[in-house]
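Continuing from the previous page...

OK, I double-checked the sequence for GDPD2 inositolphosphodiesterase against my notes and this is the correct one:
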Amino acid sequence: MADPPACCAACATCLLCPYSCRWITAKKEKKKGLRTTKCDCSWFLFLFCVFLFTLVWLYFAIIILNDFHNFNEFIFKQRKLWLDWSQVLLIATAVLITYSSVLLVLALCLQLCGQPLKLHWLHKVLLILTVLVVAAAFTGLGIKWAEEWRSARISLQATGPFLHIGVVGGMTLLAWPLASFVYRTRSTGLKVSLLLVYCTVMIALYLAPLGITSPCLMEENQLPPKPALVGHRGTPMLAPENTLMSLHKAVDCDVQVFETDVMVSADGVPFLMHDEELTRTTNVQAVFPERAALNSTAFNWTDLQQLDAGSWFLERRPFPTVQSLSAGDRHQATEQRIPSLEQALEAAKQSNISIMFDLRPENHSDYQSFVNATLAVILQSGIPLQQVLWLPDGFREQVKQQAPGVQQVYGRKRLQNEKEPLLHVNLPYQDMSSEEIRQYRQDNISVNLYVVNQPWLFSVLWCSGVSSVTTNACQVLKEMKQPIWLLPSSTYLMIWIVVDCVSFLTILWAFLLLK
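Thanks. Re-ran it with the corrected sequence; updated structure tokens here:
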């Protein structure tokens, strides 16, 4: 058996104390004759698995940030409590990954220093709790937010090549403590098992790029045009959503379409509002406390005009960007009122921006009257009908007859043997693959995907050839001149070969050096 690598007693003691919670020197530990047992090895393996588990959750946590505002809104509807839960998620995840990472680094250093891996029982309990917390998070994600699994698959198109390099690098570094352990252990069966597992994993990693696909693996001259931006309720990161201020900010952001939601008041006036209740985006609880829980359509237009539709934006800060608003923008936000559809159409006409909207609630008994009232306002507004994009499916044929110039946008994919070909579709970004996007583009079908906030996601969809995206973060996506990364396939092939060769030689060097 080889002698342990050189490691000063002070260093070994500093490593041993926090890992084993044994506040004695490494020399005294050695005199006791303590060795790493099979049970200790099992706990090290468990620690390694916990680290990987929390690392995967960290990846998921970063990916779901694109859609986390939806989760905040969901919690508010359920509990009437507004909080940016993304900060809670990131802080909790950072604590878990930091804890498991520090323990793993300590264990690997102890192994290299030839010290026993005696994990303290308190660490064992905390590791089990970590697994339970992360497992509960994954379970909740699968039950309440299953579409995020598809988001994760899409994210691999953006991160796959870089994850491959990172994992190969991490597994290569693991060769050093592994070689130290193999040469130090007396169990032949354990040696063979560890080496077989390690070699299998490395071979799989070396061949992994054969299964990695990304629309951004292309030549620069093949890159499709940059997708147009559709402002989701305007610019909700810079102004109160569904207000005239939000619309004007969207114009300043080079947004081509203002996406909003329309409801109709009790006296027949269409107005902009997303939620069925007014509590989240107005001060209805202060003005009409006894009616605050009523549906938005139960209020007449005179009542709606009394509500403040902007102060909540400064008080609740739905996005971190609210903190950076100028004094002028803050004052303007406090003056916002619920706009009527007529006011929004006039602003869109003057700004030469298109408007796309849903008509809510779809299950209302007077929905046809809502359609009639909305159509009447559109036709009377004088806005060019090609600037109006109609999303609601209810009574669509009636809309086509009364306003044939309005652009019909469908919230579904095309069907086989479609009588009337679709020209515009509006879908969640998780619902279309890169191949489908390319096919629709070849068939001259405009594809708008929502809601796209993160640059990595915008980059993948840009490379795929999507026509436009609905976004909360137009101020961020506007500044992107090209995707985050664009790499010719031949260049990626060369990087793959170099990384794999360097990794193999490093592993070989580790086993020869420590022999």
